Amino acid sequence: MPSTRENHSNTDPEREDMNPTRRIIITASLMVAMFLAAVEATIVNAAMPTVVSALGGLSLYSWVFSAFMLANTTTVPIYGKLADLYGRKRVFIVAVVLFVGGSALCGLAESMEQLVFFRIIQGLGAGGVLPVALTIVGDIYPFEQRARIQGWFSSMWGLAALVGPFVGGWTIDHFSWRWIFWFNLPFGLLVISIVAAFLANRKSDKRLRIDIVGALLLMLSVFTFLFATQQMGSLGWNAPAAWLLLILAALLLTAFVLWERRESQPFLPVELFKSRIIYSSNLTAFLTGIGMFGAISFVPLFVQSVLGKSATLAGLSITPQVLGWSTASVVAGRWMLKSGYRPPILAGVILISSAAALFTFMDAETPYLLVLGSMFILGLGLGLSMTTYIVAVQNAVDADRRGAATSSQMFARTLGGAVGVTILGAVMITRLREQIDSFLSARQGNLDPETIRQLREAQGITHPEGLASLPEQVADQVSQILSQALDSTFFTAAALSLLALASAYFLVPGGNAKSLAADKGD
């Protein structure tokens, strides 16, 4: 079989035709797209306690995140194949249009059910924005610059961390939570205009097609699993329906694996995972996503509901994590070129596990500064590891498979986040319901019907204003109950982060970045 080096020249045609000015303009527009994704994380996480208080439906709290992640996750590999088949430019523009349209609809939601549905549409677009943007960067920059540029791309998360929480918190406090979604519209339209005008539509010369059956099987298996964990949170861990759903999810996943093994152009190319650096990076990213991306979604809830801080301060709790991410991403770009992928990945996962341990000690007496410090440590770990994963998988394949490889990494990360936020959400809801039922049983006859209804439906208890409407003694007890539920959530996240540490230690290979690249001359 001819080698990769023989089949693919060392120079990318797209790179040859691009003058420096055009490259800078395209890079800037892609950075704006990265900024939108970062702002989405900081603003929506911070706004959710207020949104739940306004729309109700605490049982659907985790689904606002997991619905977005599910749509995001299952479409990432599809976008990777579409970008290789029809060109990065067309596919990227379609993704941004869906993301912006979904954002507009989220701002119009009148119930939690509607918000979850519109978040699915938003996620369908987000599934293409990040991986295709990073694939374009891989196309237009040579190997020596790729790691540095990827690090600078991640610095957009730092800028969004500074702007997002202030703008989001101020908007929620003075206007409406709806504007946190509408914020994406003007920036998204700007990105579409620039990319349409300046980026060439690079695509593969190979005859490719989309594995629709594989995509549907994986999407159904992931959705069934997430729905099963949500049902466990609502009905209890012993609910027969939930366990039947888990069995169905396992059968669908088995069918997906069997189908992919016989498919000539699979949804997730099996040959990619023959590379040790690809399967180890993706597995570790998946495990990290389960533990820590899920936990991040609940930190603003802890700050606003347990510590009693404002929406603005809840938003600011995300800032150190994103600042740490952007700072460490720049460091990772330089570190991996000197020492290979293993050192920054290991250092990153150790920092993530340390932050997870700190989360387990937080309670109603925790100083706000300790929350910020823990989030900064978490961000450093994510920046070192996640940036290295992306560059590692991109350099492990040739240009024609770069879209699929990048998407496989983004898929692993977002799938982990979707699974994590759903599992942790189920843990929180289960623990919360147990504590509330116990509290109500001990105080039968001493509470008015409206208070009982509010507690059973968990209506307003995630927001300081909602707690203020309860009798003082009840409000204090409910705050403690929510703190205990979140403590169980963070403890579960910490346990899961240890699995990521084991994966990084035992599986990620040593060696310099050049020696692990598919094309040593790229």
From TrEMBL:
The protein's topology relative to the membrane is: Multi-pass membrane protein
Name the Pfam families for this protein: MFS_1
Q: Which Gene3D superfamilies does this entry report, sorted A to Z? A: MFS general substrate transporter like domains, Multidrug resistance protein D
Q: Where are the transmembrane segments?
A: 24-48, 60-79, 91-110, 116-137, 149-167, 179-200, 212-229, 241-259, 279-299, 311-333, 345-362, 368-391, 411-430, 489-508
Q: Name one GO molecular function term.
A: transmembrane transporter activity
From the Swiss-Prot or TrEMBL record, state where the protein is found. Answer: Cell membrane
Q: Which residues form the Major facilitator superfamily (MFS) profile domain?
A: 26-512
The protein's superkingdom reads: Bacteria
Any idea which UniProt keywords this protein has? Cell membrane, Membrane, Transmembrane, Transmembrane helix, Transport
The answer to whether keyword Cell membrane applies is yes
Q: Name one GO cellular component term.
A: plasma membrane
**Which PANTHER family does the record associate with it?**
MAJOR FACILITATOR SUPERFAMILY, VACUOLAR BASIC AMINO ACID TRANSPORTER 4
Q: What is this protein called?
A: EmrB/QacA subfamily drug resistance transporter
- Give the species this sequence originates from: Planifilum fimeticola
